[in-house]
């Protein structure tokens, strides 16, 4: 069987596919790649289905050795890719014994590595994704791990130049109000006028923001809700008024009011937002 043998990882390396939606009634988050578009692109470049399992690399830093022939692609923010110490374009082909290194991206947070055949760890609830909140799925990838690869069934889609993405220093986030916007004074006005930065306490569970405190109405001050369902992109506001945007590993219920929900198309950009990135909300209808 073809495998990748892990020599080292960066701060975090996780197996991710498109997740396991549909299990919220069991208390299981959807999980999956935070930047699905980047994972899908990497998979297409190596001949996999868009949602095949790859590696999500927080700030890069991965080094692996191939034990057999395979095609690899690294997507997401701009990052150096080396094979046997020499810089290579992505996608590229590896033979047995080749060492692949992924550097540190110049912007953004998460790179995606796809390998022809996909990462073939066992599925749990229909997905190979690591879920950091519930602990379902494989453990974070660590030095010495041997990752099995599936059978290659597709044809890699070659490109002359893979244009790297660059994460901006400021993101404008489209949001729809509700379901608990009535707990806040002028919720649309507050969201539009406020400004925040991404906190270093953010992770795959949620993007924590620091900045303008969102004010509740007089009658909602000091009150809390019974726990109710949450979706990916929900903007929950704890008692301190600092919003949290829930990402793929979010809890399925929560007791703080949700002022709005981020549009799905904006979530990949939030998954790439480094601490200190400026954030503004644009309220839609």
From TrEMBL:
<protein>
    <submittedName>
        <fullName>Allophanate hydrolase</fullName>
    </submittedName>
</protein>
<keyword id="KW-0547">Nucleotide-binding</keyword>
<dbReference type="GO" id="GO:0016787">
    <property type="term" value="F:hydrolase activity"/>
</dbReference>
<dbReference type="InterPro" id="IPR003778">
    <property type="entry name" value="CT_A_B"/>
</dbReference>
<dbReference type="Pfam" id="PF02626">
    <property type="entry name" value="CT_A_B"/>
</dbReference>
<keyword id="KW-0378">Hydrolase</keyword>
<dbReference type="GO" id="GO:0005524">
    <property type="term" value="F:ATP binding"/>
</dbReference>
<dbReference type="InterPro" id="IPR029000">
    <property type="entry name" value="Cyclophilin-like_dom_sf"/>
</dbReference>
<feature type="domain" description="Carboxyltransferase">
    <location>
        <begin position="25"/>
        <end position="285"/>
    </location>
</feature>
<keyword id="KW-0067">ATP-binding</keyword>
<dbReference type="InterPro" id="IPR052708">
    <property type="entry name" value="PxpC"/>
</dbReference>
């Amino acid at each position: 069987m073809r495998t990748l043998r892990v020599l080292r990882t960066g701060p975090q390396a996780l197996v991710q596919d498109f997740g396991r939606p549909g299990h919220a009634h069991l208390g299981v988050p959807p999980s999956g790649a935070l930047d699905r578009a980047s994972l899908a692109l990497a998979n297409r470049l190596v001949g996999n289905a868009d949602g095949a399992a790859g590696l999500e690399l927080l700030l890069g830093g991965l080094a692996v050795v191939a034990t057999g022939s395979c095609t690899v692609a690294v997507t997401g923010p701009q990052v150096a890719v080396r094979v046997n110490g020499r810089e290579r374009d992505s996608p590229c082909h590896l033979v047995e014994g080749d060492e692949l290194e992924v550097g540190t991206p110049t912007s953004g947070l998460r790179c995606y590595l796809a390998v022809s055949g996909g990462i073939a760890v066992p599925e749990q609830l229909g997905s190979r994704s690591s879920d950091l909140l519930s602990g379902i799925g494989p453990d974070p990838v660590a030095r010495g791990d041997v990752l099995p690869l599936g059978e290659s069934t597709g044809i890699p889609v070659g490109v002359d130049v893979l244009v790297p993405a660059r994460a901006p220093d400021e993101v404008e986030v489209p949001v729809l109000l509700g379901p608990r916007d009535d707990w806040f004074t002028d919720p649309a006005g507050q969201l539009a006028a406020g400004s925040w930065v991404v906190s270093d306490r953010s992770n795959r569970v949620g993007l924590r923001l620091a900045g303008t405190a969102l004010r509740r109405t007089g009658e909602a001050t000091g009150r809390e809700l019974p726990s109710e369902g949450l979706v990916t992109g929900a903007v929950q506001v704890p008692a301190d008024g600092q919003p949290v945007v829930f990402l793929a590993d979010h809890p399925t219920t929560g007791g703080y009011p949700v002022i709005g929900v981020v549009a799905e198309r904006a979530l990949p950009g939030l998954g790439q937002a480094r601490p200190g990135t400026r954030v503004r909300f644009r309220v839609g209808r």
